[in-house]
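Q: I'm writing up a methods section and want to include an example of the input and output format. Could you take the sequence below and give the corresponding predicted structure tokens, formatted cleanly so I can copy it straight into the document?
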Amino acid sequence: MTEQTTPTPPVAPTIPAALHGRAPKFVTGSIMRHLLVMTGTSAIGLMAIFIGDLANMYFLSILGDVEIVAAVGYASSIMFFATSIGIGLAIAATALVSPALGARELVRARRLATNTHLASAVLSALLAGVLWLMIPWLLTKLGAVGRTHAFAQLYLSVLVPTLPMLALGMASAGVLRSVGDAQRAMYVTLAGAVVNVILDPIFIFGLGLGIKGAAIASALSRIAVMVVGLHGVIRVHNLMSKPDLASILDDIPAVAAIALPAVAANIATPVSNAYATYAIAPYGDDAVAAWAIIGRIMPVAFGAIFALSGSVGPILGQNLGALDAVRVHRSFVDALKLTVGFTLFAWAVLAIFSNPLAHVFSASAATAELIRFNCLWVAPLFAFLGALFVSNACFNTLGYAHYSTWFNWARATLGTVPFVLAGGWLAGPKGILIGNMAGGIAFGLAAVWLCLRLIKGFAFASATVRHPESG
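A: Here is the clean output for your methods example:
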């Protein structure tokens, strides 16, 4: 007689691994703990990338050519613009997928994850093509000349074509954070950083390729980011489905409603950064080199805030999907508290180590002086920029992504141009450094105020949905 067994039904393929057998991750438990765990793992991954960039700059500075360091500063302004578009698309993935998961709409979450990845790939490929053709013109407009211009053009000609790989990796990391898999999202960026740091000295010194070697190492690291990210989304969580034209057309309005304003909001920061580069260029390659080095130091020092602004979105999103207004409010306020705490800690570290940081890059006296000045007096202003970042995550998740656009562009124009002009006129490159950050104070505070108003409105709306008789 054949033995009878009761078959165990397989787990539905639409349920991500991180959600098996329990409620969506962020609608239960301590919000501060969720924030710290998500931010901690994300910060490790992000800071690994920033440290990779910092190591890149360090290895190039060993060559002893200030024009190479300045060239990376000019190139970074352009790459910052391109990367910010990828970040905007990743924000759309997080803002759309996390509420779907919070509402337990798992089939819809898979479809949105697929379509946001497709949007990232297509748009970033188009951007890469346009940027590649405009590299010489853009560098000239920023103020690069001579050997510095040639080095920057060489660097960008290698890196720009890899933008689609980076955008896909960012989208994957956003989806992984949406499902609560903070550790695997960390692995995405960590993989790229490890590849970059290992390959940098091999290509720069071992093969004698100099700045071209640094670009090749970075390009290969972006491929690693894409591979690890897609593996996590497709193989681990099964959050990708076969592309379907009908679903793509259906999701275009939802994706565009978040992605377009998020992209527009994110490119505001690199535009203001490019203007600051343009403003500091007349002070010579030493000043531009300092600006480039500061641009590598600050993300490492404040990596936790960058990570926090990316981590709070999924937490807000899942509680939004669950109609839990109290936890939405608490998530935002706790994120602001962490922003202040992270800023104070980073400022203390930068102030203590300002002298070693100024000399580790073989900087000239003028370059070292600007680095020290930034660590001591400009760094604390990052708290207001961090508040703006957290508020942008709140705007995007609550469905007011256009507010992120308005605030970021207001900060990039009204909060940058007049302050940089006045700072340059009063105190030269030091004044430009202060002016570039000082304008963010008012806009950071205003964004926080508006977010609190929107959350209060959501609380009333969610109470009406839960208890219609109270409406």
